[in-house]
UniProtKB/TrEMBL annotation:
Molecular function GO labels: ATP binding; protein kinase activity
Pfam family, one: Pkinase
Signal peptide: none
Annotated InterPro entries: Kinase-like_dom_sf (IPR011009), Prot_kinase_dom (IPR000719), Protein_kinase_ATP_BS (IPR017441), Ser/Thr_kinase_AS (IPR008271)
Record key words, sorted: ATP-binding, Kinase, Nucleotide-binding, Transferase
Domain Protein kinase as annotated: residue spans: 63-357
Stored PANTHER family: PROTEIN KINASE DOMAIN-CONTAINING PROTEIN (PTHR46146:SF23), SERINE/THREONINE-PROTEIN KINASE-LIKE PROTEIN CCR4 (PTHR46146)
Gene name of the record: LOC115961830
Protein name per Swiss-Prot or TrEMBL: Protein kinase domain-containing protein
Sequence segments annotated as region (Disordered): 18-45
Keyword Membrane found: no
Gene3D superfamilies per UniProt: Phosphorylase Kinase, domain 1, Transferase(Phosphotransferase) domain 1
SUPFAM superfamilies: Protein kinase-like (PK-like)
Amino acid sequence: MGYFSCNAESAIATCDPHNWDLSKNRRKPKTQKYKTNNNNNHNNNRKIREFYYNELVAATNGFSAEFFLGKGSHGSVYKAVLDDGKLIAAVKKTKLHNSSTTTNRRFQNQQSSNCTNCNNCTSPAENEIEILSRVHHPRLVNLLGFSSDSLNDNKLIVVEYMPNGSLYEILHSSSTSRPPGWTRRVRFAVQIAKAVQVLHSANPPVIHRDIKSSNVLIDEKGNARLGDFGLALRGHVEDVRVKCTPPAGTLGYLDPNYLAPSDLSSKSDVFSFGILLLEIISGRHAIDVNYSPPSVVDWAVPLIKRGDFAGICDVRVGSPPNPVVIKNMAVLAARCVRSTAEKRPAMSEVVECLKLVAKKAHAPPIWNNLKRRVGRVEESRPLMKWEAYDRSEEVDNVNVNANTKLGSRRNRKVSSVSSAEYGNEGIYEGILLRRRNVTKSVHMPSLQWTQYAGVLDPIFTTNETIGDRMVRSRSVGHFSEIKVGSDSNVGATRSLLARRKPGVAVKMPTVRLSKSRSMGVLHSPRLVHYNNKGYVVEFEGKSNSTTGFDTSKMVISLDEKSEKEMLERPLVSI
Ligand SMILES: Nc1ncnc2c1ncn2[C@@H]1O[C@H](COP(=O)(O)OP(=O)(O)OP(=O)(O)O)[C@@H](O)[C@H]1O
């Protein structure tokens, strides 16, 4: 199956009133100003250059292998060095009238098309130029110019150069150093969603029709950009052009409801985005015969429906530290790939939802310290999961590589987040500490984060037992170190701080764990006192029979600064 190709300019002039001036502009001098009519467009009077063909031949060293970036369905892409090295661009070299380069990865349902009488199709290259000359946004791979070689029937599209490969490579290539962590994954998802939203909110809207990881390129700042507009359609659903264009897309990402031109809507892009989101979450290909079922939708959606969010996480990175992240992303992806197009969310809703997820995808500073101190954590196992935190700083790969250096993240703003999102369970589970080469699991009361004088503070907030004996919104210090004890000294480590002068014992509240989740009852620390090692928190209690984790004694050592901060602040009411 191939693309329909016909005279693009006549098609544009005949069928698409929005494009009439593009054909006129082509006859004008080399540099054109294209006025964009998209509210979201940046840089409204951009210059689209018409390059000399020879200029681009020289810029790509004669389209040499050295400058070759990759091959797609409609041609090859080369790096181009222009303007004496001041402009680095990517040049897509395509045939104007070419259907033979279309690979079977892309799908076009000509059977269902009534296009044969319409004569309004453009080649993918023409189409890309036409659409990209109208939309411009930092989240898109934008058009810089074009060139034609009518002698050889070549069309060259000059777009912004993306030096960091594609999202496909990042997610699936085994040669890349490490798989992206959750912060990056979520950021990519937000950026791609934003790109699609920009297209859908243009006037007239643009439907991309080929959203997939290989069409998401990574720019010099590591941001995701949506590219490849060869199949995109610009216009309202009722426009002749849209009505006459046969369904197209890439197998695995294609909306199953999109069988005839009249089926097209922005919700087809939402479906493809949902597949991409599942790919980002799971690291799985959209279709992978090594899995059963091979379709990422058929595999992931039943797991999501069962609430098994960890089951769809990329095994190379495990679950994100905050379970809300995976839960919200997974549920959103499942909504995007719903079979009824009308029930899928609009891209604006997707963007808003992902922005909220992004806020939660950041790890709190305590865990960076903890990770650093505790030492090596089993790769691909989550260091910890917990239910109530939020912060505005970005930390990547929190649970992947314990050797990754992450700076102390104190003095960052955080908002106080209750565990309301999870109901009143008041428990977080799964802090995994490595002790004597055994990964132990300990259950702890939920922590509430609050901001106090710019310092992050964990406070135990087990509602049922702490009651009014603890002032929850007060700061009680900052963790700088949690030691996992050895046999010879203190036992296991738990985390609780109190502000008190050295040597003065403080009575602490009773803290109980919910029986339904925990593996026993943890009594509160009886005493907190200071010795030359730091604040020692002693607990009444026994070693947990299930975990073998001795919770009877803990020591919390503070570095000088944290200690000073702690002593300078008022005592917590207990
Ligand atoms: N602007 C760019 N900057 C850097 N590399 C690019 C750019 N555009 C495309 N490439 C690279 O060139 C290759 C071919 O891209 P192209 O968009 O033509 O095809 P594709 O998206 O891989 O496949 P298909 O055409 O089937 O969608 C890709 O591997 C991509 O990484």
